[in-house]
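Supplementary Note 3. Input sequence used for the single-chain structure prediction.
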Amino acid sequence: MPPESPDPRQHVSRRSFLKGAGGVAAAGGALGAAKAFAAAPTTERLSGTVEIELLVNGEPRKVKVEPRTTLLNALRNHCEPPVTGPKLVCDRGSCGACTVLLEGQPVYSCMQLAVDCTGRAVTTVEGLAVDGKLSTVQEAFVAHDALMCGFCTPGFVVSISACLQKNPKATREELQQACSGNFCRCGTYPRVFEAALDAGRKLQGGR
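The predicted structure, written as discrete structure tokens, is reproduced below.
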């Protein structure tokens, strides 16, 4: 009488079990990834140099850029004449010196691709002045001497302007929160917020 067939479970080592389980998990992960890629919408691949039109401070500006060019780079180095209000400092979205308004919202222009801003309203610190007259926030910065080296100043002015436009009654704490992404190496914060509060009072009709 032939011997009974051994139970296969008795000969499965821990190593072979884990290898098998890992293979199943890997296969499942690969399948999930394949579904994710299949479901992802296809996008046009850009290369070389492309011509785009930016709407900067209310004026259309045509520029030729590589798809990887940031909005900050496009403004400073590809517009004619250059738009130099936004400053290139950290170039990694940590200091706020390049802050601009994109459709009214403050953003780091060094972290935005120029091609993604095509046709969208971009307002820099230059665009806050009207007919050559400084805005209320800009005038307050001058009156309170809220600057030193000046590199961070445009970003602060833009961030505070956006905050006060939404709420002229913003408190010091709310203004500080609005500028949490702006960094001043010279330490002019007290005068910056004195200027911001003064601008807020004037925007409310006070003196």
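The radius of gyration is 28 Å. The first strand starts at residue 50 and ends at 56.
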